[in-house]
Amino acid sequence: MAPRTHSTVPLGQKIELWLPRFVVSPLFALSLFFVYGFILWTVYISFTKSGVMPNYSFEGLSQYERLWATPRLYVALGNMFVFSALFIGISLAIGIFLAILLDQRVRIEGVIRTIYLYPMALSFIVTGTVWKWILNPGLGIQNFVRKAGFEEFTFDWLVNSDYAIYTIVIAAVWQSSGYAMALFLAGLRSVDDEILKAAAIDGAGSFRTYFSVVLPIMRPVFLSTVIILAHLAIKSFDLVIALTGGGPGYATAMPATFMYSFAFQRSELGVAAASAVMMLATVIAIVVPYLYSELRGTKQ
Amino acid sequence: MSRNNLGGIVQQKGTRHLMMRTLLFLTLGVFCLYYLIPLIVMIATSLKSLEEIRAGSLLSLPQDVTFDAWAKAWSSACVGVRCDGLKPFFWNSVAMVVPAVTISTILGALNGYALTKWRFPGADIIFALILFGAFIPFQVILLPMARTLGVLGLAGTIPGLVLVHVIYGLAFTTLFFRNFFIGVSSGIIQAAQIDGAGFFGIFFRIVLPMSLPAVVVTVIWQYTQICNDFLFGIAFTVGDSNPVTVALNNVVNTSTGVKEYNVDMAAAIIAALPTLAVYVIAGAYFVRGLSAGAVKG
Amino acid sequence: MSDIRLEMVKKNFGATEVIKGIDLAIDPGEFVVLVGPSGCGKSTLLNLIAGLETITEGNIYIGGKRVNDTPPRDRNIAMVFQSYALYPTKTVRNNITFGMVSRGIPKADQDAAVAEISTLLQIERLLSRKPGQLSGGQRQRVAMGRALVRKPDVFLFDEPLSNLDAKLRIEMRTEIKKLHQRLGKTIVYVTHDQIEAMTLASRIAVMDNGHIRQFADPKTIYEDPVDLFVAGFMGSPPMNMMPGKIRTLGGQCVVSTGGPEDEPLDFLLPPALSERACGQEGRDVILGLRPEAIFAAGTELPGANRFIFERPISVVEPTGPDTMILFHHAGLDVVARVRPEDARPEGTLFMFEADMEKAKLFDAKTTLRI
Ligand SMILES: Nc1ncnc2c1ncn2[C@@H]1O[C@H](COP(=O)(O)OP(=O)(O)OP(=O)(O)O)[C@@H](O)[C@H]1O
Ligand SMILES: [Mg+2]
User: Fold this and answer.
1) B24 domain residue, yes or no
2) For domain A70-299, is the CATH number 1.10.3720.10?
3) What chains are in contact with B, requiring at least 3 Cβ pairs below 8 Å?
4) pLDDT tens-digit profile of B256-290?
5) What HEC string does A190-212 produce?
6) What is the b/e burial string over C289-312, where b = at least 16 CB atoms within 10 angstroms of the residue's CB?
7) CATH superfamily of C4-233
8) Between β-strands C203-208 and C211-216, what pairing exists: parallel, antiparallel or unpaired?
9) What residues are paired with C208 via a beta bridge?
10) How many CA atoms lie within 13 A of C155 on its CB side?
11) Domain spans of chain A?
């Protein structure tokens, strides 16, 4: 900015006025470049015939056609669907159930909450490692139950391509259901005390109070919890790698592992980019309406 | 989380009430076991010898406590071709986390402050655009980022990884600070302005000291996220510069030789310790980070 | 109709004693108003009666039955909260019927009760709306409707009008009074508003710091306060309380106030008071005179035991129907209530007349009324 001495506003004050913008703009530029620029780049690459190296000549939808002709993609999409539905459903159910239980004036609530939530502090890789050990047929649960006298007991989901995806659900629910519990508990606690007193005077028992009064009030908490869990589910990558490595075969492939293997193992940049764009589209379809309503809500 | 003041509501006492309470605590206890057993199994297994693991069962406690597996996991287990244990990778993680957390927190604080307390036209749109970055699936930026790091000469290095974490952590840190600053009265800023303090003066002398809780929440959030990251680590680092999560995965999934479950478990605990410790020490802030933005008000 | 009886009721929250032993006997059909400074325990006392808090010590009887361990739903009470506490996700109709649904009352009876109450409160047109779509006054009516619909024996109100604007508050006050006259139910009502207390109550309980200082009808509370606290709490502007000493001047008993900076005044006590107060020369007392007991000299019908004195006016505060004139005395701003046409500008030397028949004397040490 050139100093304009004839201006009525003193120079120092003018700088002050522009300083916030000066601070924000480089960060904003970073965000523009590294988020939006990169998204555009990926989207563009998905329309080229890039293979091992990026190739910038426009090719139309050919990469998408190749993508949609890959059987593995449908396995990945099917897995994501099954995984997301079960993961979100079970985590919500456990979360709301535990939150209601903890809301019953439990004196050692703090301790219990800490126990329920600690898996959230772990890396998915750690979680995957532990559950891989617990679920392995040779020395894990199966072995444990057999030694307890049930010789015929089989629990080999981890190495069974039809069931391996459920082991990922098991581990993911273990890790994230405490988180759902914490979100719901915070929601329960934000309900106005007087409303609960009114319900007590109206003669509602605890069951009716929760289902008829409290949970309907918590609808926004439900919504945001579902969004957060869905977002976790779509991005799930680490846990799959650590627990099953996408296997047996590619039985537990997910869009995120699919993209990664096409990008870094098979060096098919075009297909990888196309699959990344599909993931982005899914996330946008879920998150943008949510963000929009959240932002509108926080504005006074 | 504030506690309701409903403890006092008079309730029907009697056997039914007693039964319900018993059932309540039983259920809570069962779930405690559900969450704790994997941790117990992990610790127990890491303290057993391989023979004991084969002979015993999953839930049995170690008979002969031995720290051999720990020693091996820390300093001599093979990660890929290198057999120095997790130690070097642990320090990689530290070298990555400290600068990445510090820088992204400071920048996020400045950003949030400028966007809320010095509102200028377009601030809301800029915020929305930055915030969106917190939600993108990172797969969509993996390829261009890998190339950009290559161009910058940072490919496969820890500074490169720090850069990635700073950039993609900014959306979260900005969000946390913005949400905090929205609750700070603008009157304080105006009063300070009248007293002659400027943009940075107000930030460092007034706003930052007030926002200590937000700083703690943000630091813990970033710390946990970056410590636990795997995707960026595996995509942007190679061999010697891997963070500990990637190294752990390599230890566990090395298919050569005998499978040493006790070493795997010890390695998993070592990799988990930095975040678990912070969780135990500052759990409340951790939870606040988790629920930031999820529950309004 | 039920009576309510509290016997030595105490309530502790952890180590803090909030209700410190209250005895109270409320007759059937009475309208009792609880007043007291913020934090003195009014809401807590109401919650104890409702069963929303468990009492620490003592007994509560409703309708002759001991209810210490009875849950709120079985106490046959209804309550209106300050925030109204309407269920935000339910329609007005479902807000009103929720209590009946919880008690399994047949649908037909519910509908009849809703019809009756909504006509009474004129909220028929709102029945299918949600609370978020109602104005403050409408919400208040719905909250009343929810309480009234079950026809309980006892109503508890915790500052039900304090979130309304002044005009609506006066309207609703009148309606509550009419409702009480019509239904004749026992009501316990907490308020901060003195006019509400004076107009609604059959008896007022003045609370302070977990104790009840006085429990009596409004006239007695106003004219015969038992101590300085009650005297100072009721009345707006509050009673003037001038510290002074009992003296005998020329065979007559006076309270001399003020000095040494300002010229002392020797208020001549009427015979009834002097009988009780005199004899102890130099006793420290506090002389209480309500603003309406001090007026411009000669503007009221003459009476016995008037005391006339002169002071310069320090502040003039017109309120509309009356004008408050303040003067400095005994280290306070003493307020006198005069007709607007008698007011004079600040600084003028003004002739005041005090009606000593209405004067109250308090012991300075015990703060009790003499
Ligand atoms: N659940 C509780 N735990 C601890 N202290 C409490 C609790 N509820 C009330 N108190 C304390 O008890 C005292 C009386 O509170 P209460 O709400 O009865 O006052 P109040 O007379 O209704 O005041 P207000 O006029 O402001 O409504 C206060 O000092 C308050 O801090
Ligand atoms: Mg109160």
Assistant:
1) no
2) yes
3) A, C
4) 667 788 888 888 998 899 989 988 888 777 777 77
5) CCCHHHHHHHHHCCCCHHHHHHH
6) bbbbbbbbbeeeeeeebbbebebe
7) P-loop containing nucleotide triphosphate hydrolases (3.40.50.300)
8) antiparallel
9) C211
10) 30
11) 70-299
Fold of C241-363: OB fold (Dihydrolipoamide Acetyltransferase, E2P) (2.40.50)
Give residue B296's pLDDT: 31
Residue of C72, C77, C85 lying closest to A194 (CB–CB): C85
Q: Are A239 and A128 in contact (CB under 8 A)?
A: yes
Question: What is the reported pLDDT for C18?
Answer: 92
Ligand nearest to the CA of B9: 1
User: For residues A69, A70, A73 and A78, what is the CA-based torsion angle, rounded to 10 degrees?
Assistant: 70
What pLDDT sits at residue C362? 92
**Residue B29 counted as domain residue:** no
Between CA B222 and CA B101 the distance in angstroms is 6
Ligand 1 site residues (CB inside 6 A) read: B 5; C 13, 16, 18, 36, 38-44
Burial class of residue C367, CB neighbours in 10 A (0-12, 13-18, 19+): middle
Strands (E), C40-172: 57-62, 65-66, 77-80, 154-158
B144: domain CATH number is 1.10.3720.10
Q: How confident is the model at residue B7 (pLDDT cuts 50, 70, 90)?
A: low
Q: Which chains touch A (3 or more CB pairs under 8 A)?
A: B, C
Neighbours of C90 (CB within 10 A): 18
In chain B, how many domains are there?
Answer: 1
Residue A94 Cα to ligand 2 midpoint, Å, equals 37
State the best of A105, A197, A201 to mutate against chain C, taking most chain C CBs within 10 Å: A201
* Residue A32, token pair as written in the block: 């523009």
B192-228 confidence digits (pLDDT tens): 878 777 778 888 888 888 888 888 888 888 888 888 8
With contacts defined as CB-CB under 8 Å, which chain C residues touch A211? Answer: none
The pair phi, psi for residue A241, each rounded to 5°, is -60, -45
Start-end ranges of CATH 2.40.50.140 in chain C? 241-363
Which tens digits make up the pLDDT trace of A165-175? 899 999 999 99
Which of A27, A67, A269, A298 is best to mutate for the B interface (most B CBs within 10 A)?
A: A27
Q: Which domain holds residue B173?
A: 87-296
What residue spans in chain C does CATH classification 3.40.50.300 cover? 4-233
Which ligand has the nearest atom to the CA of C35? 1
Per run of 10 residues, the mean pLDDT along chain C (length 370 residues) is 90 90 92 93 92 91 90 90 90 92 91 90 90 89 90 91 86 90 92 90 93 93 92 89 88 83 85 81 89 89 86 91 90 91 90 91 88
Question: Which residue among A197, A203, A216 places its CB closest to the CB of C85?
Answer: A197
State in Å: Cα C68 to ligand 1 middle.
Answer: 20
